[in-house]
Design brief:
This protein is α+β, with helices and mostly antiparallel strands. The chain has 7 helices and 4 strands, in the order αααααββββαα. The protein has helices spanning 2-11, 17-98, 106-122, 125-139, 144-157, 231-239, 254-260, and strands at residues 169-174, 181-194, 197-207, 214-220. This is Protein LIKE COV 1-like.
Length: 270
């Protein structure tokens, strides 16, 4: 019997409690360490996703703004051009529609041709005589004469005839205080006489936001800086709010100013 009991003990495995306890402790430690590492990995993953999201949003925002910057001037140009064509086309389109001719743009071509023929006719001696007679008749009207005079001055400012331009030159003046400058246009020259003598003054028009809505200053010729800009370039700078101004401006010397013709206004003796 004793030998049989020993054989049974050899066949049946006996579980060691110390080994089981060690396995439990080891498994518990590995679980706790994996649980502590898991939040670190998840936080790092979320921060990477947030950074990638910011990069994508910034890239998309820049590309969208680039598209707006490119398309906005084109859209504004198209809308203004379309409105102008439709407006000019409306002068002669009803006449063509009355005869059953409905072709878009035909009235616009007719209007442009009509304006061109008016310019050719008014350049002749007969056209100038007719224009002078019409102006004489308009100036006799009390209220209409003021409107016509103002409109004619605006037209003279953009006239291709240099002798009739309202804006003679672009000027830079110290305004509103010393050390600060403003853009303006020389419109005329006046002579200021006083007890101390005579002084040549330039009538300078300083525009604000819109053309022909600004202030007029009488500035001494010695205080005016004349840059190497044409009147058209000066108007573009004003309309663009200073965004089209060159980075470097060169001013004209005094002998160059006299060579341009402004120096012909000699100060007469008192």
């Amino acid at each position: 019997m004793a030998a049989r009991d020993r054989d049974l003990e050899r066949l049946i495995p006996i579980q060691n409690p110390d080994i089981n306890n060690n396995n439990i402790i080891t498994n518990g430690g590995s679980n706790s360490s994996s649980e502590s590492v898991s939040p670190v990995i998840s936080s790092h993953h979320s921060s990477s996703e947030e950074a990638m999201s910011k990069v994508i949003r910034s890239w998309a925002s820049k590309k969208f703004m680039s598209g707006c910057v490119i398309l906005l001037p084109m859209a504004i140009t198209f809308c203004i051009t379309w409105w102008f064509i439709s407006f000019v086309d409306g002068f002669f389109s009803p006449i063509y529609a009355h005869f059953g001719v409905n072709i878009f743009g035909l009235g616009f071509v007719t209007s442009i041709s009509f304006i061109f023929l008016i310019g050719v006719f008014m350049s002749s001696w007969l056209g100038a005589s007719v224009l002078g007679l019409g102006e004489w008749f308009i100036k006799k009207m009390p209220f209409v004469s003021y409107i016509y005079s103002a409109s004619k001055q605006i037209s003279a400012a953009i006239s291709p005839d240099q002798s009739s331009n309202a804006f003679k030159e672009v000027a830079i003046i110290r305004h509103p205080r010393h050390g600060e400058y403003a853009f303006g246009f020389i419109t005329s020259i006046v002579i200021l006489r006083g007890s101390m003598g005579a002084e040549e003054l330039c009538c300078v028009y300083v525009p604000t936001n819109h053309l022909y809505l600004g202030d007029i200053f009488l500035i001494s010729s010695k205080d005016i800086l004349r840059p190497n800009l044409s009147v058209r370039e000066g108007i573009e700078i004003v309309i663009s709010g200073g965004m089209s101004i060159p980075q470097i401006l060169n001013t004209m010397d005094s002998h160059d100013v006299h060579a341009t013709g402004l120096g012909k206004f000699a100060v007469p003796p008192v």
